[in-house]
Each structure stands twice: as C-alpha cells, then as structure tokens.
Amino acid sequence: MTPTPRHLVLVGLMGSGKSTVARRLSQRLHHTMVDLDAVVEARAGCTIAELFARNGEAAFRDMESRVLAAQLASPEPSVIATGGGAVVRENNRRALAEARDVRVVWLDARPEDLVRRVGATAASRPLLADDPRGALERLDRERRALYGEVADHRIDTAGRSLDEVADAVDTWWRMQCRSGGEEEAS
Prior knowledge:
Number of strands: 5
Shape: globular
CATH class: Alpha Beta
Radius of gyration: 16 Å
CATH topology: Rossmann fold
Largest sheet: 5 strands, parallel
C-alpha cells in the first residue's frame, strides 16, 4: 500500500509560481514551506547568481541535490518549491520518483507568460543572461520532458492567478491524502 503523502514538491520553469504557490499551500496545509533556492543561498552564504559566478553551475547543482535529498528525507511534512533546473540531474529525478511519500506537481507555464512574470528579476537569474525570452524557450524545450517524467500531476497555469493555481494544487493534494495516494494522477 502506498503511504499517505508527506511532501508536496512543485516543479516548473523559473517564474511559474512555485515559491509563491508553495508559500500559500504551506499556510493552508500547515506544512513547512521550503524554497530550495533560498536554502541553497543560506548554506552558500551568497546569492545563486554569485554562486554561479564563483563556482559555476555544477557546484550550484551539487548543493541543490544535497538540499533536495535532505528535505525529502525529513520526517516533517513540507511543501517544497524546487529551483527550475532541479530536474536536470538524474539523481534528483530518481529521488523524486523513488520517494513513496512524495507527490510532485508540475506548474506548467508558457515561456511568453514566464518572461512577463520574471520581468525585472531576469538580470539576477544566471541562466537568462541577455535574452530572457530565448533562454526560457530553450529551457522549456530542454526540460519539458523532464518535468513530465517526475510529475504526478500537471497544472497548466495559463490564464490562472496564483491563487487559482494554489486552489487547483490544494484540491488535488487533498484527494491524494484522502486516498493514501493510490488514486491515479491526472
């Protein structure tokens, strides 16, 4: 029998609303909210942009993997907002797939919507560089299948407010908890 889910993990491209939706869901569900990027920054003692500049993307991804593994092993129920690229590492995808008390929701947003949402913060995001739209379109092509691989459920965020997205995730999560996670994900 599949155990009742303990951790709700949100994946998706940067700007898809993972951190904001996770914060809202953690309040509703009375779970700890974990923003993996914020935890990495706290442990590194610098911003992600600075970590990229100093040590490169590989060092950031290594730290991100360690933080994700530790959080998935935590006995305390949580809502986890991953970084947009957490799925690029196979060990992260495997950890998400093998954890029986974890459910993963993909917040799927179109690149054109993400450009608008990311807006002024694009300069502080190392992977967006000089061409946020082009970078987001490329990242979407590269990561779409990976998000689909790890997701138990996909939510199309187009035309939805962050509250509506949180409502949709909340409804699905509560169904998973009532059924012990055995209901087929859509």
